[in-house]
Amino acid sequence: VSGRSQAISDMAYYGALWVVLTVVGVIFTYLAATLRLPLLDDNFARMDALLGFRWLDWYNYVRERPVINATLHIAYMAGLLQICASIFYFAHTGNRERNNELWWASIISLLLTSILSGIFPAMGAYHYNNAGLINAVHLPDLLALREGKVTTFLVHEMQGIITLPSYHTVLGILFIYAFRGLGAWFGVSCVVNILMLISTPSHGGHYLVDMIAGSLVAVAAIYFVRGAKKYFAEREIHPLNTADQTS
Predict the structure, then answer these.
(1) Range with the lowest mean pLDDT among 64-73, 99-108, 130-139, 209-218?
(2) Cα–Cα distance between 19 and 193 in angstroms, integer?
(3) CA 156 to CA 195: how far, in whole Å?
């Protein structure tokens, strides 16, 4: 097939994989929430204080500065755009390996994140500090799951209900890693994702410890994928190559 049709094929393929990741991942986070273990917001807030981070002070600082607030809001919402941009760029540059790495690391991270969120549940910094509650759109679903009042949800209405680890932090690190060694694009990725990481407490209602946990999950997923690639390459098998390698 032509290079153009291969790129379109790759875009469609990885686009479908990301849709599957999103749907399955969200459902898994809801299942994890049904464990109904004790909430740990008090613990997370104390840990933040020990680290010298006061969420409410940071939240107020950002909200009182319109330019900073707007910039961080845009950065926080950039995750979906970056997924689409990554699929497009790697497909059109023939870099299927990076699309593979990013997808596998993302789904492994999401599974780890979901499990940990069930074991270490929390309502989030918005609820704990009684500030920005209008942005805590996940709370109705989380409360319903914990109280056992609702057992069915519409997939397109399901929310991200995870507090720890922060999956925004995971994605920010994975995006930077995916664009490593790609010159100016790596620089752009660093700027966008550093801003996204900075926005995560104020615009995602996350504690600082959520981000630390998310960073550890991302690093673990990266090393797992790297180790798996090396292991299978030495044996000349390619289970992580999800795309058709013909051209």
Answers:
(1) 130-139
(2) 22
(3) 28
> If you ran DSSP here, which 8-state letter would residue 38 be given?
P
Residue 188, amino acid: V
Helix ranges (H only) for 148-207 are 167-178, 184-204
Cβ(134)–Cβ(62) below 8 Å: no
Name the pLDDT band for 169 (thresholds 50, 70, 90): very high
CA distance 179 to 171: 12
Q: How far apart are CA 102 and CA 88, in angstroms?
A: 13
Task: Measure the CA–CA gap between 155 and 157, rounded to whole angstroms.
Answer: 5
Q: Which residues, 6+ apart, have CB-to-CB distance to 96 below 8 Å? A: 10, 90, 241, 243, 245
CB 212 within 8 A of CB 164: no
Amino acid at 216: L
State the pLDDT at residue 245: 44
- Which bin fits 236, alpha (ψ -120 to 50), beta or left (φ > 0)? left
Please, what sign has the CA dihedral across residues 202, 208, 213, 217?
positive
Q: Per residue in 59-104, pLDDT tens?
A: 999 999 999 999 999 999 999 999 999 999 999 998 989 999 999 9
Confidence (pTM): 0.89
